[in-house]
């Protein structure tokens, strides 16, 4: 993409039936890193996140907590979901709630258009319904519980809870009309669904044939009213998917909508079918462009199982950030897991990576270089002298890290981008060990060489500050100030990171960017 282009990225909107865990935060951080990176390339990046607040699951949860669905949603959003964004340092541009008036109006407008164009009809449906998924299930989506409270019963393969048999008069979306159109889309745009494992699953699913989709409920009333029949509310997924367009002015602000849409949609792989099958079919029916891409990332696993509150494997993000900080949280999940694949979380791995890569690697590098410039040159950044092969190798690594990390981001390979940048961290540490500036300082004849070595390392630190700022916004801002970076760090071009300007002086870091932390490896507590 070129400077000035629009880059719209959206997370899925999250159910407010419970509090967020690190699986939700993982998605938020990935979207935020991508948005920040594209912003620093001069693009008009825009990040949307929010909450899904309708449906039977929310209604039942609210009743169980002796409150109304709206009061329950308001409380969870205010107390848990919006604070999550501060906890992990998310720079979102908008926060959409499906109970927002702007959203409900957009849903009614969209639905009426499909109804008027003949894509919706009345009918009756009977099937297995999982309240946890808010979805009718096919038999191959169910398993027979082998033991426990539900032994012998059909349960949802995801939630391990019994499904209900529902029979309702509903309105249906003629999704079966769009099977071939979707297959043509997947073939003509191979990168529409990513990664390849998710794409292959989606293609095979659609090839088996699509049924029409029940898009209304009449057995409860917590949802957006169907505009031509207020005895029905809109199916929660049909409602929720429209947040991606309701937030940018669909049906209200045509200029804003045209400026932003289509979006990159970042979702967990378990909801990829909704976003890569139902959602584009809805858009095709409405005559609207499909998303730019749907990327279904893997799950976070704890003890070999998907993160789950119901199974008591959910970990609150604050349990990590209270000890390690938000930057470490962001770095760990973006670097330790291959983006697009499942990844296992453990306190031991988090602690080990924090100490080795952040405290000893990046943090110690910054502290040593700044301390030596202060000690040997009274804080003035020295001028470069004649470059040796070792110096030129560092310059080449800066250029390579910039180019390869930017290319990796274009492929959603956040972990690969960080690996490319970390080569510069490692090479700078090795360069200092090799050049021994403390030894050079002992002989006045080596003054120019000492200056070149320290100028080279300071320049490398500036490049690192820019390349790592989307992932480590707090630490890199401190570093940028300490090395005298000119202008706002977030305004520096990340696709030209090796070329940056300094005021010419460094200031001491009062504390390390990543202080060493002694933790209990099993609990993660300090």
Automatic annotation (TrEMBL):
Its cofactor is Zn(2+). GO terms for molecular function: ATP binding; metal ion binding; methionine-tRNA ligase activity. Zn(2+) binds at residues 130, 133, 156, 159. A motif ('HIGH' region) lies at residues 14-24. It catalyses: tRNA(Met) + L-methionine + ATP = L-methionyl-tRNA(Met) + AMP + diphosphate. Its main location: cytoplasm. Residues 393-486 form the Methionyl/Valyl/Leucyl/Isoleucyl-tRNA synthetase anticodon-binding domain. Binds 1 zinc ion per subunit. Residues 8-369 form the Methionyl/Leucyl tRNA synthetase domain. It is found in: Cytoplasm. Its EC number is 6.1.1.10. One of its GO terms (biological process) is methionyl-tRNA aminoacylation. A motif ('KMSKS' region) lies at residues 306-310. PANTHER family: METHIONINE--TRNA LIGASE, MITOCHONDRIAL, METHIONYL-TRNA SYNTHETASE. Belongs to the class-I aminoacyl-tRNA synthetase family. MetG type 2A subfamily. Monomer. Is required not only for elongation of protein synthesis but also for the initiation of all mRNA translation through initiator tRNA(fMet) aminoacylation. This is Methionine--tRNA ligase. The gene is metG.
């Amino acid at each position: 993409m070129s400077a000035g282009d629009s880059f719209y990225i959206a997370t899925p909107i999250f159910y407010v039936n419970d509090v967020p865990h690190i699986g939700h935060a993982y998605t938020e951080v990935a979207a935020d890193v991508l948005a920040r990176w594209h912003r620093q390339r001069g693009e008009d990046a825009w990040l949307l996140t929010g909450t899904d607040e309708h449906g039977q699951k929310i209604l039942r949860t609210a009743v169980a907590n002796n409150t109304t669905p709206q009061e329950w949603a308001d409380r969870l959003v205010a107390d848990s979901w919006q604070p999550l964004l501060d906890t992990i340092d998310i720079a979102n541009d908008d926060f959409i709630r499906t109970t927002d008036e702007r959203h409900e109006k957009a849903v009614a407008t969209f639905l009426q258009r499909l109804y008027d164009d003949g894509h919706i009809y009345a009918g009756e449906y009977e099937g297995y319904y999982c309240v946890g998924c808010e979805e009718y299930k096919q038999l191959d989506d169910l398993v027979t519980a082998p033991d426990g409270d539900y032994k012998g019963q059909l349960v949802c393969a995801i939630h391990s809870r019994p499904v209900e048999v529902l029979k309702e008069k509903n309105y249906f979306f003629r999704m079966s009309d769009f099977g071939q159109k979707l297959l043509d889309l997947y073939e003509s745009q191979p990168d529409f669904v990513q990664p390849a494992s998710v794409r292959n699953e989606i293609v095979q699913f659609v090839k088996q044939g699509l049924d029409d989709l029940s898009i209304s409920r009449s057995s409860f009333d917590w949802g957006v009213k169907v505009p031509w029949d207020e005895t029905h509310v809109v199916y929660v997924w049909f409602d929720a998917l429209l947040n991606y367009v309701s937030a940018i002015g669909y049906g209200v602000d045509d200029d804003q909508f045209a400026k932003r849409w289509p979006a990159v949609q970042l979702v967990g792989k378990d909801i990829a079918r909704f976003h890569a099958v139902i959602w584009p079919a809805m858009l095709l029916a409405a005559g609207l462009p499909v998303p730019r891409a749907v990327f279904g990332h893997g799950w976070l696993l704890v003890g070999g199982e998907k993160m789950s509150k119901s199974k008591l494997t959910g970990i609150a993000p604050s349990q990590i950030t209270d000890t390690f900080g938000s930057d470490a949280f962001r770095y760990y999940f973006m670097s330790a897991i291959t983006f697009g694949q499942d990844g296992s979380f453990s306190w031991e791995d988090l602690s080990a990576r924090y100490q080795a890569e952040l405290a000893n690697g990046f943090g110690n590098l910054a502290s040593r270089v700044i301390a030596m410039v202060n000690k040997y040159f009274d804080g003035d950044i020295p001028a470069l002298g004649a470059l040796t092969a070792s110096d030129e190798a560092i310059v080449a690594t800066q250029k390579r890290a910039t180019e390869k990390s930017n290319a990796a981001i274009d492929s959603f390979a956040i972990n690969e981008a960080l690996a490319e940048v970390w080569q510069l961290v490692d090479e700078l540490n090795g360069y200092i060990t090799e050049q021994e500036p403390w030894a050079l300082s002992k002989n006045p004849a080596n003054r120019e060489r000492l200056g070149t070595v320290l100028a080279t390392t300071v320049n490398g630190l500036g490049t690192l500050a820019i390349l790592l700022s989307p992932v480590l916004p707090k630490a890199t801002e401190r570093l940028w100030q300490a090395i005298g970076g000119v202008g706002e760090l977030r305004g520096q071009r990340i696709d030209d990171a090796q070329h940056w300007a300094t005021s010419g002086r460094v200031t001491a870091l009062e504390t390390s960017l990543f202080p060493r932390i002694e933790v209990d490896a099993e609990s993660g507590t300090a």
